[in-house]
Design goal:
Helix content is 45%, strand content 10%. The chain is α/β, with parallel strands linked by helices and 364 residues long. It has one domain: Glycoside hydrolase, family 3, N-terminal domain (TIM Barrel, Alpha-Beta Barrel), CATH 3.20.20. The strands form two sheets. Strands 1-2-3-6-7-8-9-10 form an eight-stranded parallel β-barrel, surrounded by five helices. Helix 6 links the parallel strand 6 and strand 7.
Amino acid sequence: MPLATRRAIGQLLIGSFPGRTVPADLRALAREFDLGGVILFSRNVEAPEQVSEVAAEAEMLGRELPAWVSVDQEGGRVARLKAPFTEWPPMATLGRAGSDDLAERFAAALAAELSAVGITLDYAPVLDIHTNPKNPVIGDRALAESAAEVARLGRAVIRGLQSAGVAACGKHFPGHGDTSTDSHLELPLVEHPPDRLRAVEFEPFRAAIAEQVAFIMTAHVLVPSLDEQRPATLSADVVQALLREELGFDGVILSDDLEMKAVAATWSIPEAAVEAIRAGCDGLLICSGDVDLQARTLEALIHAAEDGRIPAKRLDSAMQRLRAAKGRFLSHERQPLHERQRRLTAVLGCDRHQAIAADMAAHL
């Protein structure tokens, strides 16, 4: 395999690391592969200045194009960045408020704080519909209990994030709202027929696609009416046939964390990565911080490309979409780090953002 192609396969990975600086082994991996990006967790966060430094380091792990610096910052219980960042109420408050304007103002303020520290991709909004009160993993992360409300407010959140320069990621396709188990621990089952899924679960994703959302994340759920054997992330019937072809999404399809037990209990991480790309995913999340595992996964992808299990056409289409998304959000010149840091106190947790958070909290 040509060195350039081998290096480009690194673009498929959004990886992770254990500490508060980019470790030497991840830098070494980036010298061999042109890494797609990193995801930050609470373990990587100490203070805003440190986050901005680690984001600047992480961005340079991409050679041809900057690496994504990404985070799960939804609000409520899924928030990696705490005070002095604004601490946002859960997104369910936006559904109770019912205001597109509030949703868009929230997302623009959130994006301003993420951009201030160099974060370029946020795994939000949740587009799952809160139709099952026994759902242990979605709950108040969902915007609302009706498809139409989630669709409308989801568009507003995407608009707010992306107009402020942060790529948005709608999640979790084909819908994780009506499940009663946690995919971090086991494989949830969605037992709806295709007609119901098209009428309800898919509606927020259609709206997100119309709003030109940059990323859509797959769900590690089993939907027997769509694929009796494979979870959605690893199913070409779900990823390629439905999301790509039927719904017409032309952005980046990203797997949820491949180390979640819903997948990892059955497939090794390298095997799951190969199957996800074969199914139509363009990018992969590996989130524990095990750099050796990330290296082994990239080698597995190279072998699968060499022996034809991942066809060249499939790899090329993924690369084109990944490059297009980076061209859209990462092509502008970055402010020098010292200038960004000088503005942090003026942006993070500012009065205007606190007022938006208070408007949301009125609907707790």
